[in-house]
Amino acid sequence: MPGPNTFSVSRYAPDRGAIGKLTARDSVLRRLDWPMLLSALALSFIGALLVWSATRNRTTLNNGDPYYFLFRHAMNTGIGLVLMIGTIWLGHRTLRGAVPVLYGLSLLLVITVLTPLGATINGAHAWIVIGGGFSLQPGEFVKITIILIMAMLLSARVDAGDLDHPDHRTVVKALCLAAAPMGIVMLMPDLGSVMVMVMIVLGVLLASGASNRWVVGLLGSGAMGAVLIWQLGILDAYQINRFAAFANPALDPAGVGYNTNQARIAIGSGGLLGEGLFQGSQTTGQFVPEQQTDFVFTVAGEELGFVGAGLILVLLGVVLWRACVIARETTELYGTIVAAGIIAWFAFQSFENIGMTLGIMPVAGLPLPFVSYGGSSMFAVWVAIGLLQSIRVQRPMSA
Length: 399
Description:
mainly alpha; globular
């Protein structure tokens, strides 16, 4: 008998008559999930204001141009929207056939980071400098390809009607394909991205209907792996110090606790309504490092207060809620798994980013989706929105 975490074949069995009623061009706009899209756009708009506030006076970063980061954030959002539209136009089903190629390209990119072409930015050797002030962080795109490659494998025989749920051999193959890029990213080392990828894998396995023993086993293996990584000294000193400072804030090794202390001061000083946009004393005084990227939430807390910071949480919640609706309503396991992987990604990364500014999570160098400055992260999250919208748009219409 299928377990409680198993999807039935009837739900995902192809409905040939319904598939013939898939989206016509004139109904695509009507089929889009507008609450999700508008919430993501609002987050990017708020992010542009916060990034501008955090960088307009930082002449060492903006080369004397107070609008430098504002324009680039807007450009990154625009490119992200183009990528989203392209993803919807191609469709997640069309991309399913190209997943092996996309996976191979992402694997090649993360390997390239470990060559002389790789660059270290903000302490992480996780970048490829393209030139002209542009750089690429391949780890952001690996999150997408892990979701797609695992979804393709785990759903193939279920969507075809051959099985009720993925068999053990298929799960092993999917985990091995996910582990390959994760291992390379760990060697950079980019611990924050690996943490997100682990949560993605857990979300994918839960949504696939695979045996819960795999989830329990993965959690156990993850705990043992963390101990092994610590004992083998794979982490850099600054990463170890981050965890030490989180475990004991009074210890503050090498001054790494400075970031989180200043972040809490900034958020705490905002009160209910904040000090006003561009008026935050911590922000204008440049006391919080990396405030346009990892610690952008501190600008919201200080200048927009509890209400403004709460609005960001509400908008993120709407994106996650609509993604859950899409995952539940799709008629194919492939779409469900893709949506679940994106949900796990967005939920954990948002929690980690906001949590580290509040001191309830260790600093892991993760951006806040849609809000933080950064091209690669912005492109990746909008491609993910495109995948979610494609799943909704290509959902068969009811008879």
